[in-house]
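**Tokenised fold:**
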Amino acid sequence: MQACKPSAGAGRILRRQAGGAAVEFALVVLIFLTLIFGTMELARAMYICNTLQEVTRRAAALAANADFSDADAMDRVRAQAVFRTSPGFLMFAQPVTDAHIKIDYLAVTPGGAGLVTMPISAGSLPANPEHNQEICTGDPNSADCIRLVRVRVCLPGSGAGCDPVPYQSIVSLVPIPFPLPLATTIVTAETLGRSAGLPPSPPPPTPCGC
């Protein structure tokens, strides 16, 4: 007995069904991958936001005891802040690098109804830690006496301000355009790399603003 063969019309229907199934499968896979990668991106974004605060804490603790007049020492502070021994990216947190670690030195000066903290410009910083100790001993509220160290995560080239670093997705399929938080830590200046044998800087009074 001769086997039945599908007609030309039935073949076209089968091909259309197969094509429809392929399109449906592609859509399901696209949605599934979007959910998977979206979850990964959200987890990574939360990790970065939480880690940046720890980065500023590490940098502040190191900078409070590092020689601010030694460029190499400050480069090491920034690298160690992002958990590295050399310049580069913070792990799993691109585009954040050691270059995004901004270290400022603050003075506590009279202002308004009390004392306020003021950033010391690069041109007004003491020549070295020993010079800073002399200034602070003579007048703890001098405008060029380093009393506090502030560390922030900023976009390089922000000038005196601090522009937020934009989040960078690792999967272009799931763009998440938002600025990373401006993590900030302020600590009391300690030795600042000062030679042993010199008295410590006086503790700063509580300021009324930054």
Q: What stands out?
A: Residues 10-188 form one domain.
